[in-house]
Structure formats: structure tokens, C-alpha cells
Amino acid sequence: MKRKNLLLSLLISLFFTNFVSAQDTIVSWTFPSTSADRFADVAIPLNATRYISAQYGYLQADSLSIDYTTEGFQGLPDKCAMTIGWTNNPDSANWMVKFKTTGYGDLKLYSKQFSDSSFAGPRDFKVQYKLPGGNQWVDLTTITVSSDWTTGVVNGIVLPSACNNLSQQVGIRWILTSGLDINGNALLSTGKSKIDDIIITGSPITCINELQSENLIKIYPNPSNGSFSIVNDGQNKTIKIYNILGDCIYVKESDIESVTKIEGFNAGVYFIQVTNVYNEVNISKLVVE
Predict the structure, then answer these.
(1) Do 30 and 150 have their domain in common?
(2) Residue 133, phi-psi category: left (phi > 0), alpha (psi -120 to 50), beta (remainder)
């Protein structure tokens, strides 16, 4: 019996781990050769126009010019973002991105940094975040950069829960913390700093509810082509459908019909919430292809 319980616990643990690890990219800057510029390359609609910047000085009033023609992490033709001008700016000069997290939690951050060896770039950084409306940057981790794409890596660091489901912009920056280059010498004005593959992922905030209520809502077909039906078991009181951004886009008070037919949905991921006569809420995911 103990062996069976242990096996069951392991299976549940593996299922839950696999479930929560499947995340969406809510915004990323990967600088492909076809779109090597400051704007996000992959994003949910709220973040489609978000961009990367490099800045320094009092109140971050001065900008560093960014070059998007340099070879990136994946090698040519992949590109990255590159700047010079980090001299004499510890605790000031930084890379920065801003984005919204509406509808998402369990946020994770990825990035890669590189400092040129021929024009020895900055070595010491730390990653910080700032909440919307705040004026304080909070440390997440420190980074030591080298002349490769494997040393100065942030690999899925979890952002604080305070960053979840925000309709205003969260800030992330990679700020210089010393005046040294990658060789331990004084950083020169010619030192080059590169960054690539900035990716922020998250899980839809309804995922935990969906896991708990799996198979309690009968939807067919799922995946759908835009038309689908929800089975009424005689106890459904209210049906609500939310898009991936958390907006409620459909509401219906359930009636005596055994099946509710819905049509005209565009491709995407939706969450169907059914409240029964006992005010119990069940949520399930629908995919429209």
C-alpha cells in the first residue's frame, strides 16, 4: 500500500510539474535577422509595441545608442542588441525593458549577455525589477559577464508574485555595478556590451483553477474551429468565457437547453467558467484553431 501511495504521489507530482511548466511567452526580444530592432519579436497583444532601451545618468535622462547589426547568440544571421559608452556609469547605465502582465502569473525571466573581448566590455551587472507606479528598483540577481553567451545568463528566474496580472508596466533592467571590464581592468569608452534572447514567460492565471476542475465541464469539439457546444448537466447557472488577456467576452445565464451552442470565435485560447446552482465555479480551457 505504501509503495502504491508513493507511486501515485510521484505521478501526481510529475503531472503537476509538467502542467505548470508549459508557459506562454508574454514578450520577448530575440533580434532575428528579419526583425532586428528595438521592438518585441513575440508578444501578447498588450506588449506588441514594447521596446528595449539602454540609458544612464540622473533620472535615466540619457540614452545609449543601440546597434542591431551585430551577430547574436545563434550566430549569423541572428542579431543582438549592442552598445558602447558604459564608462564611469556604475549603478546608472543599464539595459531596460517594460511590459504588462495582465492575465498571467508564475512569471519567469530569461536573458543572455556578452561583453566583447576585442573591445573589452563591462563585466558586472545585476538584474532588478520595478512595479508600476513605484520609484524603487528591487534586486533579483547578480550577473558576471564574459566574452561568451553562456556565462552571463539568466535562466528562468522567477519574478515576485507582486508582478502578476498587472495592467500597468513592470520594469526589468540589467544595471552596471562596477567600472571594470571582463579582464578586470578599468572599463574604457570603447567597451562593447551585448544582450540577446530576453524572454518573459507566464502561465494564465486560471491554470490552477483549470487543473482543479479538469473534466468537470464538457465542451466539444475541443480543439474547435470556432464553433463549439457546452453541455448543461442541469445544474449550470451561468456561463462566462474569458480570452487569454482575462477579458470576459461572453456571458449567458443557463436555461433548460441541454446544450449551449456558441459560434464565431477567432483562433486562440479561451477559458470557460461555469457557475452551478450551488455557486461552485469550474473552469476549463478551450483551444480554437
Answers:
(1) yes
(2) left
| DSSP state for residue 66 in the 8-state scheme | -
Q: What is the C-alpha to C-alpha distance for residues 15 and 201, in angstroms, rounded to an integer?
A: 20
Residues 71 and 197 in one domain: yes
Omega prior to 204 cis, within 30 of 0:
no
pLDDT tens digit string along 102-125? 889 999 999 999 998 899 999 999
| Amino acid present at 118 | S
Radius of gyration of the chain (CA): 23
Number of alpha carbons in the 13 Å side-chain half-sphere of residue 83: 22
Element (H, E) at 143: strand 138-144
Residue 96: per-residue pLDDT:
97
| Dihedral, 212, 216, 217, 220 alpha carbons, nearest 10 | 110
pTM exceeds cut of 0.70: no
Cell of 242: 474569458
CATH number at residue 116: 2.60.120.200
For residue range 182-200, list pLDDT tens digits in order: 999 999 999 999 999 999 9
* The three cell numbers locating residue 261: 451552442
Count of domains for the chain: 2
- Cα 93 from chain centre: 24
- Closest to 229 in 3D by CA, of 274, 262, 254, 273: 262
Phi, psi of 237, rounded to the nearest 5 degrees? -105, -45
